[in-house]
Amino acid sequence: VQLQASGGGLVQAGGSLRLSCVASGRTFSSYNMGWFRQAPGKEREFVAGISRSGDNKYYPDSVKGRFTISRDNAKNTLYLQMNILKPDDTAVYYCAATSRGSFLSRIASYDYWGQGTQVTVSS
Question: Residue 103 — pLDDT band, cuts 50, 70, 90?
Fold first, then answer.
């Protein structure tokens, strides 16, 4: 499956952005999906995960209550709604797909990655 992320940009602290990730090539609904981010000089980290049906969602404490992951299987699209953004959220955001059913927070679980979209939050 090929993944194309978009929607990044420059936003002030407290603002919102919605990222999108369009999938093509294979059946989108057969993959569990995730969002990750990588800030300069830091390791890539898990931001959100969602099951194939969209019924189950997972977040680390750092974004819980501010970020919402969702998907539209009819449109082959994954979303990340980001609210109350902070300067620490500044990073390149990546979407990823996995056929595995567990450990969605682990980078190694994912088979396919999008190219990344830059999110910059100014203070």
Answer: confident
Q: Which residues of 99-119 are buried (b: 16+ CB within 10 A; e: fewer)?
A: eeeeebbebebbebbbebbeb
Read off the tokens for 34: 């995730």
Distances, alpha carbon 90 to alpha carbons 11, 40, 47, 112, in Å: 10, 9, 12, 23
Tell me: the pLDDT tens digits for 27-80? 999 999 999 999 999 999 999 999 999 999 999 999 999 999 999 999 999 999
Determine the Cα–Cα distance for residues 5 and 19; give it in Å rounded to an integer: 7
CB 10 within 8 A of CB 120: yes
List, in order, residues 6 or more apart from 79 with CB less than 8 Å away: 18, 19, 20, 21, 69, 70, 71, 72
Distance CA 55, CA 53 (A): 5
The whole-angstrom separation of Cα 26 and Cα 2 is 8
